Amino acid sequence: MELQESASDGALGSTLTTCNLYDGKARNHSVNNINLSSHTSLANGDRVAELEYELERAYETIAIQKAKNSRLTHMQNVVDSEVQELTEKLFQEAYKMVNAAEERREKSEKLLIESRLKVDMLSAEVEVLKSVVKAPTQKASFSHVFMNSSSKTTPLRRVTGRAFKVAEETSASNSQTTHDIEIDPIYYREFAEWREDGMKLDFTSPFLARIIAEEVKPCLTFDNELLATSVITSIMNNTLELEPSHEKKTSVRTCALTNVQRHCPYKLRVSPDSDWVCITLLCRNRIASVCDFYTYVRYMNLGIVKTGLNDSYWDVIHHRRNMTLAKCGLGYGSKTNSGFSSVSE
């Protein structure tokens, strides 16, 4: 029994010893686990802090980049707007230059055409004036026949006849009747005084004022009084333009001067800035006869027509006769049969 108890005590002791050993190991393992856990926790805290620091740095970097991007975007927008504005200005200037060049080209072409017309007109006038200067009273285109050339101081004797032949032919054949044509002393005196005063284009002088009142204004009296007044003014200022309408077949339309429905084969304008208006042949003949007179007076003022007192007087009478004929619608015979200084045909 004792031996069994001893054995039992020994087994119990060994068992307790074994249990104690296991308890110690377990405590040691727990302590080690606790220490390891604490070390791990510390390491994880440092890593989290480090990551948080890096995240903050990343946020700061991103904020800096955003600010830089905002500044660059603003600068780009400013540059783009300036480039766009500059481009628009350049295109506007280019358009202005092109338009100005086109206007200058059109104006140059217009001036070229007008200058060519004036050159043609003046060339024709020069040729006619040469014939007038050489033989101002020897041609049948006058409405009278020249005076007896034996003396400049002898009374004027005019010869009229069929086809207005020259006086030598009439004297040689003795087949035509001669008539004494008297000179109006008032007209002649006023004309002589005007010549002695330098042939100035003073329309208030007795000579010119009388012709304007007795021939010019009655000849240019139309229903359209405003346009008629503008026509007289433009003739005096040498700005009137008169030319054919260049229509293959003239249509019936309202004449700008008479306000009557007629064929209007001619057109006129009182200045280069005004509009063209259509007129009838009657109006054209009236205006042309007045222009003929003013052209002759201008040539006398410029010294182009070099004739004596008597010859130039009868030339003026011829133009007064033409204005009277044109006023009555009987047509007229132009002395020059060419363009006028103020009329373009």
TrEMBL record:
One BP term from GO: exocytosis
MF terms (GO), sorted A to Z: guanyl-nucleotide exchange factor activity
Listed InterPro entries: RAB3IL/RAB3IP/Sec2
Protein name: GDP/GTP exchange factor Sec2 N-terminal domain-containing protein
Gene Ontology cellular component terms for the protein in this record: Golgi to plasma membrane transport vesicle
Matches recorded under CDD domains: Rab11BD_RAB3IP_like
Record bears the keyword Coiled coil: yes
Source species, domain of life: Eukaryota
Keywords: Coiled coil
Family: Belongs to the SEC2 family.
